[in-house]
Amino acid sequence: MILVAKFAEGAWLTLLVIPATFLGLRAIRRYYDALQRQVLRGADRVLDLSGEMRPPLVLLPLGQWDRMAAHAVTVALRMSPDVVAVHVTETEGPDLDAAQQDEMCDRLQADFARWVAAPARAAGLPAPTLRIEPSPYRSVLGPLLRQVLAWRTEQPGRAVAVVLPMLVEARWWETLLHTHAERRLRQALLRDGGPDVSVVSVPWLLRPPQKQAAIAAEEPAVAASPRAA
């Protein structure tokens, strides 16, 4: 009778929690074992340098021409002479009609020709190209992945780098004021782009970097030592 009373009072939870915890831990262990087998596979750890070692094809999503975009294009040109900027239309939502969309595209093309193509040619560099891609579903990922697939057909074996301008907030509350679409796009590209696609985040800082403060926060003992001072 005592066992029945204890079971009714809540001892049955123990019979559920302990086996569930055990099974959960076993599943976690199997996951880590499978991960280790995948990344430590013997022959696949050898560098494959048999292919053509060329700079990557660089893809850059471009919303508008501003200082963030200029910084990202500069980084892209330092990586490769083959840079394609992609502007996806119809991502601004229903607030803009077709005429306003066309006006935005015309303004962006004029800015790109003036502030990107002309300076690149003047510096003796291949001018990046700008592609205008319609996206009825308001998706940036789809046009980028289609360009990656096209490059795989045209230039098989060539690596692809997607350069993403990324706003870095200075205060915690500033993170609430932005959509963080670039972070979601980065995650989707890493997940679905394939092993030959890399994503390069180009930060735009809302405050100057504080390297010494960051080091002190991570390594307080080193920062406090007389030698560090």
Describe the model.
The chain has 229 residues and is α/β, with parallel strands linked by helices. The protein folds into two domains: 44 residues; 149 residues, HUPs (Rossmann fold, 3-Layer(aba) Sandwich), CATH 3.40.50.620. It is 50% helix and 15% strand. The chain has a five-stranded parallel sheet, with helices on both faces. Helix 5 links the parallel strand 4 and strand 5. The longest helix has 38 residues. The N and C termini lie far apart (71 Å). The mean pLDDT is 85.
Question: What is the strand and helix layout of this fold?
Answer:
Blueprint: H1 2-39, E1 57-61, H2 67-79, E2 83-88, H3 98-122, E3 129-133, H4 141-154, E4 160-168, H5 181-192, E5 197-205, H6 211-218, H7 220-224
Parallel strand pairs: 1-2, 1-4, 2-3, 4-5
